[in-house]
Amino acid sequence: MEIVRLNALSSDKMQPLLTEERLYLHQKFQWDTQYTFKLRIQLLKYGRMDGLAAVLQGKPVGYINWHHFESELYLSGYYFSKQSNLEYEPDFLDYAARFIARNYDSSLIEGQLLCVDDSSKSEIFERNGFMTVERDYMVLELSSFKKKGEMKNLPKELILRNLEKDGFDIISDLSDSMYKSYKRTMDEWITSSFGSFQGCRNFINNLFEFPVYGRLQENLSLIINDAYNQIAAMILVCKSSNSAAHIVQVSVTPEHQSKGIGKFILNECISKLKDAGYKSAVLMVTAQNFRACNLYRKFGFESISSFYSINYNKLKR
Predict the structure, then answer these.
(1) DSSP 3-state percent helix, strand, coil across the chain (nearest 5)
(2) Largest distance between two CA atoms of the chain
(3) How far is CA 266 from the centre of its chain?
(4) Which domains does the chain carry?
(5) Helices 170-182 and 197-209, interaxial angle, to 10°?
(6) pTM (2 decimals)?
(7) What is the mean pLDDT of the chain?
(8) Concatenated DSSP letters for 78-93?
(9) Which tens digits make up the pLDDT trace of 176-194?
């Protein structure tokens, strides 16, 4: 096996592997990654896709890529061909983890890689100084969902409404609510998207601007405002494929937690998804967030795969 830099490979050379990855993600996770696929092809054409590739007999069989944002390095994708000899995968991952940790002076290196999907792969990163956190990919088949009529009504000072990107700064309001919800939780450190107001703002802004998770469905996304018109809870939904909706964010601010608001907004959202014709709803959750996992299971979500969040924070060493 030869390991080369991604920017040394042409888009034509990499396209079969990226196509295989796209089909795999669609079949396993009901995720249409057309936007990401096209973006990577364009980056390869101009030699701007940074990362490493595993090559066997002149054919790319695996890759990991990353990109810089300010002082941070984000691991954007990882895949190793299921049609190749998988005995080479551990050696490729080990080389990649060592290469990244030793060659980049970024204050933070992080990524959530769906195909780092078992403990043996996460242990390779851990041996090279990374911290890993197990996350679950959960699916709810909407044909079996019945709206829970026994849910408590919202307190009269709270108002449920659809998400609308209107005149006021909805991105700032969503970011502030999201940041408050994740502060001092386990999820705060696994990704910078949850660990600071600016990280939350970048995450929310990307949902509106870049369809990595699919197009944001504002008419199916919900927020709950409190008496001061602050966002007390939110649930944001993207169109993962024609049949699957991806719930990319569920959060309730600390002062409104343990009051049944999370159950209420999830119940309303799932009902809307079913009425809109979706066949399934998917989401990702930290496996050790037992409270959230138990809530999702009560609604019928089932874990179909585990994957690992990867984190290497040089400032905390």
Answers:
(1) 40, 30, 30
(2) 67
(3) 18
(4) 2-129 (3.40.630.30), 140-306 (3.40.630.30)
(5) 130
(6) 0.91
(7) 91
(8) EEE-TTS-GGGHHHHH
(9) 999 999 988 878 777 777 8
